[in-house]
Amino acid sequence: MARKPKDLTRLHGHHVVTGSELRATFSEEPDPGHPGRFRRRLFHGVILTVLLGLIIAGIVGAWAVMSGVVKFPDAVASKTPQATCPTTSYHYLPNSKVTVHVYNATGRTGLAKSIADQLKARGYKVGKVDNAQTRYSGSAQVISGSAGQAAAFNIQRNVAGTDYYRDDRSDASVDLVLAPGFKELVKPGLVDQTPGKLSCPRETRRVADDAVQPVPPSAAR
After folding, report:
1. Strand bridging mode 14-15 / 10-11
2. Most CB atoms closer than 10 Å: which of 5, 74, 90, 166?
3. How many CA atoms are closer than 13 Å to the CA of 181, on its beta-carbon side?
């Protein structure tokens, strides 16, 4: 007796869905003019275009920042040192009207006293004579308050290559901080006594570029 062919669309009493039936179930009916389908496609296209634009803009923006074409205002401003140097032109004060404190930050024993004695011989009033510490590597720091700027100008003319710093003292005294680059005082006969301006920190030797009142060495007030 011939066996009845097995029905491949049935498995244990359940209908097996074929590939053709799946395609027929999920396939969209061809209706290109349907308004809803057109709006969905348009919306998807707009989203893809916007995303692509954002990606391109991000790449271009990153390139512009890294190459320096675009600079942020805060970053640019932070690199600009504030002007702290007086613009006044000073006359050379007589040495006898200048009170100067001498500090040795060179590590050379006895230098402060030696220079203090030389300044006394030039008619200066010498106050404190002591050692100090500083990160400054030029010739010497000349430090005073606003009232002592004319006296500081005098000291700068007697010590070549110095930089002026202002602090908040109220008197007219001046601190002379001898730094590692110091060699000697200007010879008395070579001191320039014509009017001029204070010499403030050069960029290669600045201690506090952005400070309104640069901080002097700890031992120098």
Report:
1. antiparallel
2. 166
3. 14
In a domain, 168, yes or no: yes
Residues 6+ apart with CB under 8 A from 196: 89, 90, 153, 157
Whether 61 shows a pLDDT value over 70: the answer reads yes
Cβ contact 152:76 at 8 Å: no
Rg, Å, the chain Cα set? 41
pTM of the model as a whole: 0.57
β-pairing verdict for 163-166 and 140-144 = parallel
Percent of the chain with pLDDT over 90: 48
Inside any domain, residue 26: no
Q: Is 147:172 a contact under the CB 8 Å cutoff?
A: yes
Strands, E assignment, the chain = 10-11, 14-15, 99-104, 125-131, 140-144, 163-166, 174-178
pLDDT in tens, 152-172: 999 999 999 999 999 999 999
Cα separations (Å) of 79 from 86, 132, 177, 206? 21, 30, 28, 14
The count of structural domains within the chain is 1
Whether 48 is covered by a domain: the verdict is no
CATH code for the domain of 117: 3.30.70.2390
Q: Which residues contact 124 (CB under 8 A, 6 or more apart)?
A: 95, 96, 98, 99, 100
Question: What is the tens place of the pLDDT at every residue in 89-140?
Answer: 999 999 999 999 999 999 999 999 999 999 999 999 999 999 999 888 889 9
